[in-house]
Amino acid sequence: MEVNNWLLINLGNGGGFVLDITNWDMLFGSTLWNIWLRRNAVAFHVYSDRRESVLEASLRLQKDCLTAANRALQPAYGLQVAVDERCMARSLV
Description:
With 93 residues, the protein is mainly α. 54% of the residues lie in helices and 4% in strands. It comes from Hibiscus sabdariffa (roselle).
């Protein structure tokens, strides 16, 4: 199988590769992204004190993406301000 087809299948459905395809596309994409980041960190000698594995970082990113997607589906009654995890989100009404 060609790499392009493999990527398209996994980012689309992944049913031919995994038993539980629930949110597989997000986990697969998150894993590829974290492998890419680690590869670049090694190639460009970027030091990181982060000690989580690629899988742990990918699962965290998948969870963050699912949380953001679920929030986007909820009706907004005011302007929502997106902030990082060090801050609390506030609704401006």
